[in-house]
């Protein structure tokens, strides 16, 4: 399947980072140029971010949605450059996730499926995923595939939810030499954080799958010789299924009811039912193609899969082999892209998906 690497090389030639709208436009035009005329192509724009939806049906009620993105995080010229050897393709976006996009474009270019499908190609997943959120107000499906998580064909059963909070403390100022005349707003916030991580100790590895609370940013004070009377603290919380936003807010209120708390961002926890008949059929297909058992796991990352969870759509999250996403030497294994193509082709052609 030399076509997959040819498409991938072209996709990676576009530096699709935030605020590079011309690069996104050129990439979308390239995709349109290689697709057969029998497919429907619809461009959408949400908050100045574009998305292309490719479908074999005019219907918005589908059998299958495949959700992808072509935006990447910023990297220097060397990091963004496409390289390859006999085994891997290297460069920003190789595994996250232009490699998978290349597979899907080649798939729909060379196959006619009875299954009613749509492919989402969004441009803001690395920012906030709003395009997918908005598209899911328009489309519905029996099943979704989001090839954006795990590694080496692991099936993702659960991804942590996201809560980002801003905590503000307003206290009484005093001279630094008489701290007993005031109340230190910074220490007041740190006391909250220390009690939170006592309740939720930080995980020590990816296998230590539990809720984590990261103190991302803290600001306070305006003079060295003064007890600060105002401070703000930002927390990034990645939570598992035993935690809720309400529970976190109640805990903070119990620790210190005088702290003002506002929610900056909330993303639901992703969870899929591995006993769903379509998910089981997909696992069976993978095992037939790969000739081995599929590992099912929970991961710390977040993806656009959450927008399908919100609508109770069974969702497959699975990546081919690769690594170093968002880092130097990001790569995807060439043979694994071919295997992913085989899995998708065999699975979508099964009558049971319709």
Structural account:
It is a single chain. This protein is α+β, with helices and mostly antiparallel strands. Helices cover 32% and strands 29% of the residues. The chain has 10 helices and 19 strands. The strands form 5 sheets. Strands 1-2-6-3-7-17 form a 6-stranded mixed sheet. The protein has a 4-stranded antiparallel sheet with strand order 4-5-19-18. A 4-stranded antiparallel sheet has the order 11-13-9-14, covered by helices on one side. The longest helix is centred in the first third of the chain and has 17 residues, at 94-110.
Helix count equals 10
Which regions contain 5 or more consecutive residues with pLDDT less than 50?
none
N/C terminus separation: 27 Å
- The arrangement of helices and strands along the chain is HHEEEHEEHEHEEEEHEEEHEEHEHEEEH
Shape: elongated
Question: Describe the biggest sheet?
Answer: 6 strands, mixed
* Proportion in β-strands: 25-35%
Strand order of the largest sheet: 1-2-6-3-7-17
Structural class: alpha+beta
User: Mean of residue pLDDT?
Assistant: 95
Rounded to the nearest angstrom, the radius of gyration is 23 Å
How many extended strands?
19
